[in-house]
Amino acid sequence: MADYPSPLFEITDLHASTTDGIEILHGLNLVIQHGETHALMGPNGSGKSTLASVLLGSPEYLVTKGSIRFQGDDITDWAPDARGKSGLFLAFQYPLEIAGVSVINFLRQALSARKGIDLSVLELRLSIMDWMDRLGMDPAFADRYVNEGFSGGEKKRNEVLQMAILEPEMAVLDETDSGLDIDALKIVANGVSEVKNDRPELGVLAITHYQRLLDHLHPDVVHILIGGKIVESGGLELAGRLEADGYETFR
């Protein structure tokens, strides 16, 4: 893998609170290199989804201290659209429905903004069809309205399709396994792996409750988040300890 002048993604002493002043993240540190997959695990209320929202610039939270750097740039104060255009991607835990907007038109608008060019639907359709085939998706999916009437697995596969088409440099997967049965989880995880195989220098931060996702993603590093801080980091064996002993061991 090529040498890079700086980490792909670097979070330093990050403190963040709700807009009414309740601090949720208390000095979080995390470094992700190009091509690495990191897993972040933690109990309910530990700050996992807050972190995902803060990384993508949600106005629901305020960064009160620390910094977020992406490809060497300090993006702590960047707007969400600027972060997206720069190559940062979030797969939502609960993807929203967008009535009246087809999947292919949504992707056309998003990719046009990301690349700074005005793409036509025809230009995009071949690429979408190729990825739908690779992700095991029905081609008719492209013309359905975004997430409208989608099953939980379809919503999550749509998120993976977006990640494939938009070609981000860094993807944050916020509990992508939430609400999925074992078969749907395997399909989604294999989709993420397919995108990684296509773009090996993509960085991934997978936020999850469960080891079962990690059995498919094979992360390079596993982090335990408790009380708004990373309390321990290690290899996949750390997830095994967590599965056996629970979070109390790490408090």
At a glance:
This protein has helices spanning 48-55, 80-86, 103-115, 121-134, 152-166, 182-198, 211-217, 236-245; strands spanning 9-18, 23-32, 37-41, 61-70, 73-74, 88-91, 98-102, 145-146, 170-174, 203-208, 221-226, 229-234.
Could you describe the 3D structure shown?
It is a single chain. With 251 residues, the chain is of the alpha/beta class. It has eight helices and twelve strands. A hairpin with a 4-residue loop joins strand 1 and strand 2. Helix 5 packs parallel to helix 6. The longest helix has 17 residues. The protein is globular and about 50 Å long.
- The number of E-state strands comes to 12
Quaternary: single chain
Form type: globular
Specify the CATH class: Alpha Beta
Cα-atom Rg, whole angstroms?
A: 18 Å
Superfamily at the CATH H level?
A: P-loop containing nucleotide triphosphate hydrolases
Q: Indicate the proportion of strand residues.
A: 25-35%
Largest sheet data: 6 strands, mixed
Would you identify the CATH architecture?
3-Layer(aba) Sandwich
Low-confidence stretches: none
* Count of folded domains: 1
Give the topology string: H per helix, E per strand: EEEHEEHEEHHEHEHEHEEH
CATH topology: Rossmann fold
Tell me roughly what share of residues is in helical segments. Answer: 25-40%
- Helix and strand content put the structural class at alpha/beta
In the sheet with the most strands, the strands line up as: 6-9-10-3-11-12
Mean pLDDT rating:
89
Q: Termini, distance in Å? A: 36 Å
Number of helices: 8
